[in-house]
Amino acid sequence: MTDLSAQDVSTQEPGLGDYFALLKPRVMSLVVFTAFIGLVVAPVHVHPFIAFVSILCIAVGAGASGALNMWWDADIDTRMRRTAGRPIPSGRVNKEEALALGLALSGFSTVLLGLAANWLAAGILAFTIFFYAVVYTMWLKRSTPQNIVIGGAAGAFPPLLGWVCATGGVSLEAWLMFALIFMWTPPHFWALALFVKSDYGNAGIPMMTEAKGRPATRRQVLAYSLLLAPVAIGLGFTSIGGPLYLAAAVILNARFVIGAVAVARRDETMAEADSYAAEKGLFKQSLYYLFLHFAALGAEAGLAALGYGGW
C-alpha cells in the first residue's frame, strides 16, 4: 500500500498496544523522567500521592500531544521509513480515533493536574499540548527550517512543569532546566537528519538539511552545541546544582562539543566514506546527554536530603 486511503482500511481490530503506540511511549519516558527530576529538586516537600498524580498527568498530556501529532502527520508518516510503521499509516488505527484519543487525554490531564497540584501547572500543561500539536505540528514543522528550534520549546517544559507542580511558581532554576532541553534539541535532531537524509526530503519537510544544506546544518549543530554548554554548566552553580552535577556537566559538554566540532569539520564525501560515523556518534551521545544531566541533578537532591549535596 502506498497511499493513505488504502492504509486507512485495516483488516483487524486495533489492540491496546496500537493505541498506546499513538502516545509515543519512548518520548513519554523522557518527559516523565525530566518532569520527575524537576519536581524532586524543587525546594519544597510534595506529598507522594500528589507527586504521583502530577507526573501521571504530565505523562498523559505528553501522550495526548503524541496522538494529535500522529493524527495530523499521518500523510507524511507514510513517506518516511522510520514512521511508516506507526499505527495510522500502517492501517492499525484510523485518524478519527487518534484525534478523539488525543483530545480526550488533553482535557483529562489538564483538569486533573489543576485539581491535584495547581492551576498554573495545568495552564502550562495545556499550553504545552497546544504548542506541540498546533504551533509545531500544524504550522512550524512544514513551513520553516527553524521548526526544531522553536518547536523544541514543547519538549522543554516537563522539568519546569514538575517544578511548578511542587512550588506553584517558576524560578531561575526552572527556566535553566527548560533551557537545557531547548538548546539540546537542535543538535540532537539535526545530527539525526544528517544520516537519515532521504526521509525528510521525501516527506517534504523543510528540515535544516533540506532547506539550508548540509554544510550549514553542520555549522548550526556546532553553534547550538557551543550555546548549550554554558547553560548546562551554569545550572551547576544554582541552588539545585553542586560539585557532582558540575563535574558531570563539564565532562558531558566537553565530549559533546568535541563531537560537534568533528561533525562540523566534515563534508559529505568524508561522512559517506565511514557511513556517517561522527554524525551517528554525536546522535548517540545526545541520547544519554539529557538523562545523565538530570540524573546528576536528582543525585544532588538526594545528597542534599542527607545533608551532603549542593554548595
Automatic annotation (TrEMBL):
InterPro entries on file: Protohaem_IX_farnesylTrfase, UbiA_prenyltransferase, UbiA_prenylTrfase_CS, UbiA_sf
Compartment annotation: Cell membrane
Topology within the bilayer: Multi-pass membrane protein
GO molecular function, one term: protoheme IX farnesyltransferase activity
Transmembrane intervals: 27-44, 50-72, 122-139, 221-238, 244-265, 286-308
One matching Pfam family: UbiA
Biological processes per GO annotation: heme O biosynthetic process
EC number: 2.5.1.141
Pathway linked to the protein: Porphyrin-containing compound metabolism; heme O biosynthesis; heme O from protoheme: step 1/1
Miscellaneous note of the record: Carbon 2 of the heme B porphyrin ring is defined according to the Fischer nomenclature.
Family per record: Belongs to the UbiA prenyltransferase family. Protoheme IX farnesyltransferase subfamily.
Record text on subunit structure and interactions: Interacts with CtaA.
Protein name: Protoheme IX farnesyltransferase
